[in-house]
Specification:
Layout: E1 4-8, E2 12-13, E3 16-23, E4 26-27, E5 37-38, E6 41-42, E7 47-51, E8 55-60, E9 71-77, E10 83-90, H1 94-107
Antiparallel strand pairs: 1-7, 2-3, 3-6, 3-8, 4-5, 8-9, 9-10
Length: 108
């Protein structure tokens, strides 16, 4: 039986304005961009119902609030809807960095 929690995807993380977010169910190694991450989209700035322990990818915009590079932040959905940080990758190669780090965790 699955346990569900409500997580709020923040509109900002520090100086980063969040552009999009999704639950990561699968990783396609053929891509080195956001298309590598397969899963359900989440609404930024709202509560989203997810399964406990789902892996959530949150990606920011580049060139906003004085930040020149995009950032990607990976969380696990925890108890009471808490977002537990797993990793972050800053820079235009964020997708490659996250893909390589998460592939064994997600795909095995």
């Amino acid at each position: 039986m699955f346990r569900y929690v409500n997580v709020e995807i923040p509109e900002t993380l520090g100086s980063y304005i969040i552009k999009w977010s999704k639950i990561v169910h699968e990783i396609d190694r053929e891509y080195n961009n956001g298309y590598a991450f397969k899963g359900d989209w989440l609404k930024v700035g709202y509560l989203n119902q997810v399964q406990l322990y789902d892996v959530i990818l949150v990606v920011s915009r580049a060139y906003t609030l004085g930040v020149r590079e995009p950032g990607a932040f990976v969380f696990e959905a925890g108890e009471q809807g808490r977002l537990i940080p797993i990793m972050e990758a800053i820079g235009f190669d964020w997708a490659h960095t996250v893909k390589e780090a998460l592939y064994p965790y997600i795909m095995e």
